[in-house]
Design goal:
Helix content: 25-40%
Shape: globular
Structural class: alpha+beta
Oligomer: single chain
Number of strands: 6
Radius of gyration: 14 Å
Length: about 140
């Protein structure tokens, strides 16, 4: 099994590609924006050159990332994922980070909640705040 893989969120084959590489397993997913290069994100303590917009966990990548895709995609109306709700609520966010350029990094883990907390804690320590589309609680 591949432990880490990156995908274009808008890909029509996203579900099939995830199923092929991860089956029904889960882990942590990271949303970022990349066209020719990763788009940095300004943060409280300096720029995030990795461009992290959101860090989340999934018991099954298939279920959770498709909820994410539907909540962000302009072709769907869905409030099943907080990231998409926050993304769609601000036109300037959508302009700066176009849906067509959004990417997902999937990291397989048997303990996704633990890995998610480690990544979020590390992000807060480095940048002084959560990724822009995450929220507390």
């Amino acid at each position: 099994m591949i432990s880490q893989k990156e995908y274009l969120l808008s890909s029509e084959r996203l579900w099939y590609s995830i199923e092929e590489h991860f089956g029904t397993s889960g882990g942590v997913y990271v949303l970022y924006c990349k066209k020719d290069a990763i788009k940095p994100v300004n943060r409280l303590l300096g720029p995030d050159e990795n461009g992290v917009l959101y860090i989340g966990m999934a018991k099954s990548f298939l279920d959770r990332t498709i909820e994410l895709k539907k909540s962000i995609s302009p072709d769907y109306i869905s409030a099943n994922h907080e990231c998409g709700t926050r993304f769609k609520s601000n036109e300037r966010i959508r302009e700066k980070f176009p849906y067509e350029d959004l990417c997902l990094k999937l990291i397989a883990s048997y303990e996704p909640r633990v890995l998610e907390q480690e990544l979020l804690t590390g992000y807060i320590l480095e940048f002084g705040e959560l990724p822009p589309l995450n929220r507390v609680g």
